[in-house]
């Protein structure tokens, strides 16, 4: 029996290792993986210690993060980065939607043995003592479909021991589910360093044979031994957010202003309509990408940008209707109606609000400064072009022709320098005195019903 005791102990230790139901998931295959083990005692009581491990290629990521919950907003987030001294900094944060997750210390975590940077791999073995609940959510330690999120940023390692380090916006995200009933471990102890693997920093969680070429020259690679019970639902990439930004910039800062300028410069209503239709379609495509991104990051209708953006985009639906009403009225009566001014000013206000909301979105997304600068330059150039056009239109009118035109069709507001700028230019009112023949031609068209067909304008 004297011999048997240590043998039994060894056997049970071995058994503990073998039966460790640690399961995991790789947000980035071979490069960033996490595993979790829930002690039976914690699973039974519904609270207490849980253990998880996060591994990533050390020199490739600025930081990596996992969090509990379905969405970033309200998630219990753990950010990991190298501490610059061969170990890992764990930063617990509260997900707040679009903005930088704020450091918090409510979550009790401990970095455990086996953590560190070895063979090019950053390993964090973590004990969390109260992960079953946090302000913002709860996790059922026996949940069959426990929701997790992950995020990461490629780049040079942060190398800081500060848990409050400012992190750059994530580059990509992943959401996945773990069946915690398959993650139970018998003992309430670090399941990642049992047995012979202790202290190597790579505890047997290697890939199933094929992990050559992870790039870091590591010997084991990164992977998880058991992915059974986890499922991944692909998250919204940064691409979606980028596409959203590019499309919306094109729509609000370029196309809408351009369409408004065209009606003044080219004076053909169909160019104006064509441009605004393209902008309108682009805007809805931008809304779609924004909606998807916001839904995946949990920010939908939870921050100013998404709410305000939805309002502006929805309000824009009225604009083609106003334009069409104006057009019909003008065609029939040869004069502007209140709806004409509504069309002009409604459009101006929405364009401006859209551009402002773009800035809000850039800020909320923590976009690189370059993006903000490019956006500001585009918006400013459009703004200058727009105002210049409005002034030119005003000067044209001010140059004597306005009176003439007022006499002719009474469609001009003599006291508004920019009133000309907009749908009144639907190609009918091009004259401004200088080009009398054209003017008359258009006057004719604006009154003669026969010309409708010629312009293909539906009644
Ligand atoms: C990292 O820190 C943990 C917790 O203090 C410790 O157990 C571990 O040995 C450290 N790793 C290295 C490589 O120093
Ligand atoms: C290993 O990975 C390479 C590259 O991804 C792939 O072509 C190959 O089929 C894999 N081999 C095995 C055994 O999975």
TrEMBL record:
Keyword Signal (UniProt): yes
Keywords attached to this entry: Electron transport, Membrane, Signal, Transmembrane, Transmembrane helix, Transport
Listed Gene3D superfamilies: 1.20.120.1770, Cellobiose dehydrogenase, cytochrome domain (2.60.40.1210)
Residue ranges of domain DOMON in the record: 30-155
Ranges annotated as biased composition (Polar residues): 427-448
Location within or outside the cell: Membrane
SMART domains named among the record's database cross-references: B561, DoH
Gly residues composition bias: residue spans: 212-228
Low complexity biased stretches: 194-211
One Gene Ontology CC term in the entry: membrane
Secretion signal span: 1-20
InterPro entries per record: Cellobiose_DH-like_cyt, Cyt_b561/ferric_Rdtase_TM, DOMON_domain, DUF2427
Transmembrane segments: 241-262, 269-287, 307-325, 345-366, 372-395
Stated name of the protein: Related to cellobiose dehydrogenase
Organism: Cephalotrichum gorgonifer
